[in-house]
Amino acid sequence: MTKTAIRLLTLAMYATAMVAMPMVNSAKAAGSDTPSPPADSSKDKKKKNDKSSSIDDPKFLDGYRAAYTTIYDRHDYAAAIAQLKALGHDNVADVANLIGYSYRKLGDYKVSQVWYERALQADPNHVRTWQYYGLWQLEQGNRESAQYHLGRIQQICGTDCAEYKSLAMALNQPAGTGLVY
Q1: Contact status, residue 93 vs residue 120, Cβ threshold 8 Å
Q2: Any signal peptide, and if so, which residues (predicted)?
C-alpha cells in the first residue's frame, strides 16, 4: 500500500470509530432497567411451587434494577449474575439476557451462549438478546451468524433502533480487529 492509501485508511477507521462511539453508548441505553414481561405471561402456566415474586412485584423490580446498575455502572458481572439468579425469574428474557451478557463480559462464552439461547427461548423477538448474541458471535469470529442476528433485529424493530445500529456498526469493523463489545 502507498503511504497515501494507508493514511486514508487510518483516517477512515478513526472517523468510523468517532462516529460509532455515540452508538456504542446508546446500545447500553437501549436496554432498560425495567424488564418486559415474558412472551407468554399467562398466569395459568405459572409453576405450582413457584414462590418467587411476580415480574410486576416491586421487590422483583428493585432487584432487577439493582442488578442492572451492578452491570452497567459498577461492571461487577459476577455480583450481577448472583443478583439476577436470586430473582428466580430465568424465564424472563431480560433476566436471562443480562446473565448471558455478564458471563460474556467475564469471558465464559459457553455459559453465556446457554443464557442467550434461554432468553430467546423465553422470547424469540427479544431484540436486545439478538443484539448481544450477535456481538457474542462477532467476538467468536462468526460474522455470518452475527449478520443473521442483524437480520432478525431488522425484522423485529427495523434499521432505526439502537440495537440494529449497534450491531451493524460492530459488523462494519474490520474482521480480526480483536474488538470486544
Answers
A1: yes
A2: 1-29
Closest CA to 129 of 137, 140, 142, 117: 117
Distance separating alpha carbons of residues 96 and 143, to the nearest angstrom: 23
- 68 residue type, one letter: Y
3 state DSSP class of 49 = coil
Spell out the domain ranges in the chain: 52-123, 125-181
Q: Is 22 exposed, middle or buried (0-12, 13-18, 19+ CB in 10 A)?
A: exposed
Q: Encode pLDDT of 80-134 as tens digits.
A: 999 999 999 988 999 999 999 999 999 999 999 999 999 999 999 999 999 999 9
Q: How far apart are CA 48 and CA 64, in angstroms?
A: 23
Q: DSSP for 78-136?
A: HHHHHHHHHTT-TTSHHHHHHHHHHHHHTT-HHHHHHHHHHHHHH-TT-HHHHHHHHHH
Could you tell me if 175 and 143 are in contact, meaning their C-beta atoms sit under 8 angstroms apart? yes
Q: Select the CATH number that applies to the domain covering 52-123 from these four: 1.25.40.10, 3.20.20.10, 1.10.238.10, 3.40.630.30.
A: 1.25.40.10
Give the separation between CA 83 and CA 132, rounded to whole angstroms: 20
CA dist., res. 177 & res. 158, Å (int): 27
